[in-house]
Specification:
With about 350 residues, this protein is an alpha/beta fold. It has a single domain (about 25-350), classed as TIM Barrel (Alpha-Beta Barrel), CATH 3.20.20. About 35% of the residues lie in helices and about 15% in strands. It has twelve helices and ten strands. The chain has helices at about 5-20, 40-50, 85-95, 120, 160-170, 200-215, 235, 275-280, 290-305, 310-315, 325-335, 345-350, and strands spanning about 25-35, 60, 100-105, 110, 115, 175-180, 220-225, 260-265, 280-285, 315-320. The strands form two sheets. Strands 1-2-3-6-7-8-9-10 form an eight-stranded parallel barrel, surrounded by five helices. Helix 2 (about 40-50) runs parallel beside helix 3 (about 85-95), helix 9 packs parallel to helix 12 and helix 11 (about 325-335) crosses helix 12 (about 345-350). About 40% of the residues are buried.
């Protein structure tokens, strides 16, 4: 006996809903540098015409010092974003239910190869390793094990400055969360630091993370970080970039459980999301520009959510694509038809436009 067309239509709708639900995540995100002022309107168009139709609900913006801070104008970039610029992006995101999470790199990434970041330019006393000079021509590896500088987490003046910056940028973006970075911290507990030398690196890392988290919690804001320093790079074989060789990984058992982890892996779909979830931490997998690997990471997260216990499933939150160029460069790639694999092509594959 043939089914009525109305019955078939109902089944089709239910099946479509089921498929969509199976491919849905609580967190569908993009992490990218905040645009410079010249690209703000272009980026707002991208939010309206591309992020929203792809059901993106989380936008992590690396602001750092690309903002006209009032609490610390000495740290603001000369042509930093104004509050009016920020308001345009916030309004677009609010219109589409997209949560903006501003990021300022804390602890690590206070320099880039041969250039000091703004914090250590203005406050050189915060430098964990002032005796290590940035080379004119950077190479890795090097005798000083220099990748990026860190600030000293035990310096008595550092938190007044970074917390005021953090509070201002969270308020400026009307955000409920803040991303502190905290990835690739190679300099911590350095032997030449009069405050940190001889101290346990895991305790130092956990202590700094907890201070940041507790400060945010006072205003009901949540801390997000990259997860690499909490993974044992030697035991896992993941290495010193996407995981830790300096023992900070033990900090995972010393930190609050409400910290959100962005678990980045770019060349292999390492299944470390399970590790974070089993430690009671929420986690999103974070690819970059390797599309086949990114699609494997997405499928792995879908499988984990489909097969986990209710307790574990709650921790597998979804996927956050990363972009490590300026926003303008990404938009150029996004709107250019190219067969070459890139962060833009990867983004389109992960988040299909509806």
């Amino acid at each position: 006996m043939m089914m009525k067309k109305s019955t078939l239509l109902v089944f089709a709708v239910l099946f479509s809903f089921f498929v969509r639900a199976q491919n849905d995540f609580p967190v569908r995100g993009l992490a990218i540098a905040a645009p410079d002022r010249e690209n703000v309107d272009r980026f707002v168009t991208f939010i309206n015409e591309e992020l929203a139709p792809r059901n993106i609900n989380t936008l992590i913006l690396r602001v750092d010092y690309n903002f006209k801070y009032k609490t610390h104008p000495e740290l603001a970039q000369e042509n930093g974003l104004s509050q009016a610029d920020v308001d345009k992006m916030v309004a677009a995101c609010q219109k589409h239910g997209i949560a903006i999470i501003p990021q300022v790199n804390l602890l690590g990434h206070q320099s880039w190869h041969s250039t000091l970041g703004k914090l250590l330019q203005v406050y050189p006393e915060f430098d964990e390793t002032p005796g290590i000079q940035l080379p004119e021509n950077y190479e890795w590896p090097n005798e000083d094990d220099l990748y990026c500088k860190s600030y000293c987490p035990l310096h008595p003046g550092v938190h007044k400055v970074v917390f005021e910056v953090m509070d201002e940028i969270v308020a400026a973006f009307k955000a409920d969360a803040f991303h502190a970075g905290m990835d690739e911290v190679f300099y911590i507990g350095h032997e030449d630091c009069p405050r940190c030398q001889g101290r346990d690196k895991a305790e130092l890392f956990a202590g700094e993370l907890t201070k940041i988290r507790n400060h945010l919690a006072l205003k009901n804001k949540r801390l997000w970080i990259w997860g690499d320093r909490l993974i044992d790079g030697k035991t896992t074989g993941i290495g010193l970039w996407e995981a830790s060789y300096n023992n900070t990984y033990r900090a995972i058992d010393m930190i609050p459980k409400d910290v959100m982890i962005c678990d980045w892996h770019y060349e292999r779909p390492d299944p470390t999301a399970v590790y974070f979830a089993m430690k009671g931490l929420d986690v999103a997998t974070s690819p970059w520009r390797n599309t086949p690997v990114a699609l494997q990471q997405k499928q792995m997260m879908l499988d984990l959510r489909a097969n986990a216990t209710p307790e574990m499933k709650a921790h597998f939150t979804g996927i956050v694509q990363t972009v490590w160029s300026g926003a303008g460069g990404f938009l150029d790639r996004f709107y250019t038809e190219s067969e070459e694999d890139s962060d833009a092509k990867c983004f389109k594959a992960l988040f299909v436009k509806e």
